[in-house]
Amino acid sequence: MNSYEIVIEFKEKHSRTWRDKPDWFWFICLIEEVIELGLALLGLHRHSPEYEMAQISSICMNWMEKRERSA
């Protein structure tokens, strides 16, 4: 599975996870994943940097779709 497919799989798996949450909630969740990416890069987190980047990408994609539908 390539990186695009991994991101899309995450995106679809979590497409409704926070759909009803406000933007500040999405932002906090995104920052949490960015921190986890930093920890993964330092070898201090259980997931790989690639896993964290896929989560970050899928959050951004779902958040953008949520905002488009809210407009």
Oligomer: single chain
pLDDT averaged residue by residue: 95
Shape from CA axes? flat
Query: What structural class should be given to the helix and strand makeup?
Result: mainly alpha
Compressed to H and E, one letter per element, the order equals HHH
Total number of strands: 0
Extract low-pLDDT stretches: none
Largest sheet: none
Fold and architecture overview:
This protein is 73% helix and 0% strand. The model has no long low-confidence stretch (mean pLDDT 95). By secondary structure, it is an all-alpha fold. The chain starts with a helix and ends with a helix. The chain is flat.
A few lines on this structure:
By secondary structure, the protein is mostly helical. Helix content is 73%, strand content 0%.
Labels describing this entry:
mainly alpha; 71 residues; 3 helices
Please describe the topology of this protein.
Layout: H1 3-13, H2 23-41, H3 49-70
Helix pairs in contact: 1-3, 2-3
